[in-house]
Write a sequence for this structure.
């Protein structure tokens, strides 16, 4: 492809992208295909010779969009959002054109210094104190892994990376049993083992029981195990479980444990001061993760990892072979030393574009609307015959299930799974399920960047209509 061809086709791609966004409401949220449909349309072997962009683009339009789940669809009410605001998309195009490797200050000075500034803008937006510094990781899973590795090294007096874990005492990390599975995976990757992630029970408010945590730490110490850290949950993925942050942080500080707060989804809502009560006491944390690529509109991947003190993180992860050293420059930051991966994308550009284009008030307005719409829908479903709200709204997330007549829990689980499948197969909206206290429930979460009140109204109509049709056979 020549530079001239690139100019022509980049314009074509931009036009396609704008048309795509405008047409989303006319598309099913989830694709109407079965496993293998897409692969069957692709050749078995790569081409020996180059093909025309006309043919490539035509195949893209024919094969790819019909086989995609449309995460930017305004009626995407599943999982958590993974938004891509228009300003962020533009920034991604520019970053892609420059195709920089942003591992060191000297490899991309503007990217590094913009990242320092954008992390601080986010810190201010979330109401965190100035002591917190940070980095833009790819996802919350990576940020959590970095936190677990730091817990490990700190507890072992920085011997783990050098000596390995053989012969070291078993390290224990504590979290609510309602935390995200990324905590479990971080324990695997960090070499600490699934059995050493101690799942603490929660109370009726879905918060970690402080006394149960204290007892688990005491018991482990008595048994010769080594407590290393606590993961505090703010807005768990399943049903929004949230720990009492100040209470758990105070106990962890007393016990000398490293504190990581997982606020990957709910943290974005902290741009609204009225929601900050949900993480009161967070300033005591050592590490916090929030995903602007979920609810704020920054395209994937963009996870803000804040740390009270960068030194333990760098002591855990920084490695400086000769070919990565920068001579003659003082006071620089090399963000590859703050993360597991060496290669880094120019993530800060999309945060800069997004925050300037929408402003904090624009971002706050969307989140407030999403919360209000979810609360309203929960109230309407609760007032309908045969529906129950299983977990009340936590910000814009709640769970419900259809409960017609006198049925066993097993029968209700099966019925709600059929209801979910029928809703998603029809394609007007997209929902996902979870289990809560052993029951299968349906999650509903607003958060799509272009969602409007009428989209939530459509959700109410689809849910109730489909449930009654299922009941009537």
């Amino acid at each position: 492809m020549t530079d001239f061809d690139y100019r022509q086709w980049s314009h074509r791609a931009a036009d396609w992208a704008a048309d795509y966004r405008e047409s989303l409401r006319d598309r099913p949220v989830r694709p109407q295909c079965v496993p293998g449909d897409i692969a069957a349309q692709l050749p078995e072997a790569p081409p020996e010779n180059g093909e025309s962009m006309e043919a490539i683009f035509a195949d893209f339009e024919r094969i790819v969009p019909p086989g995609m789940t449309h995460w930017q669809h305004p009626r995407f009410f599943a999982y958590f959002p993974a938004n891509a605001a228009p300003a962020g998309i533009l920034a991604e195009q520019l970053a892609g054109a420059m195709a920089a490797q942003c591992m060191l200050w000297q490899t991309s000075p503007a990217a590094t210094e913009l990242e320092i500034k954008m992390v601080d803008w986010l810190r201010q937006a979330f109401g965190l104190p100035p002591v917190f510094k940070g980095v833009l990781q790819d996802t919350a899973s990576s940020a959590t892994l970095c936190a677990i590795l730091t817990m490990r090294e700190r507890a072992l007096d920085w011997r783990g990376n050098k000596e390995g874990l053989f012969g070291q005492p078993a390290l224990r990390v504590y979290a609510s049993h309602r935390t995200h599975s990324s905590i479990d995976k971080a324990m695997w990757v960090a070499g600490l083992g699934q059995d050493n992630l101690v799942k603490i029970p929660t109370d009726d408010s879905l918060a970690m029981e402080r006394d149960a945590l204290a007892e688990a730490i005491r018991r482990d110490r008595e048994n010769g195990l080594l407590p290393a850290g606590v993961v505090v949950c703010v807005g768990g993925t399943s049903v929004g479980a949230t720990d009492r942050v100040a209470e758990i942080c105070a106990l962890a500080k007393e016990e000398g444990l490293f504190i990581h707060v997982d606020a990957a989804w709910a943290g974005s809502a902290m741009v609204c001061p009225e929601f900050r009560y949900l993480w009161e006491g967070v300033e005591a944390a050592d590490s916090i993760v929030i995903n602007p690529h979920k609810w704020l509109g920054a395209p994937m991947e963009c996870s803000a990892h804040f740390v009270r003190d960068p030194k333990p993180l760098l002591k855990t992860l920084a490695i400086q072979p000769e070919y990565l050293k920068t001579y003659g420059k003082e006071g620089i930051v090399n963000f590859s030393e703050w993360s597991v991966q060496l290669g880094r994308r120019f993530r800060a550009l999309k945060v800069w574009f997004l925050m300037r284009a929408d402003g904090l008030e624009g971002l706050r307005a969307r989140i407030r609307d999403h919360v209000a719409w979810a609360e309203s829908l929960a109230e309407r479903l609760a007032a309908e015959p045969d529906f129950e709200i299983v977990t009340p709204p936590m910000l814009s997330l709640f769970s419900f299930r259809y409960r017609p007549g006198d049925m066993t829990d097993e029968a209700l689980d099966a019925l709600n799974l059929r209801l979910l499948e029928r809703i998603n197969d029809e394609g007007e909206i997209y929902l996902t399920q979870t289990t809560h206290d052993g029951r299968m429930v349906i999650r509903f979460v607003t958060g799509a960047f272009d969602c409007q009140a009428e989209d939530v109204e459509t959700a109410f109509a689809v849910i109730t209509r489909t449930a009654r049709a299922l009941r009537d056979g």
Q: What stands out?
A: Residues 101-345 form a domain with the Aspartate Aminotransferase; domain 2 fold (CATH 3.40.640.10). The chain has two domains: 101-345, 360-471. The CA atoms of residues 31 and 67 lie 5 Å apart.
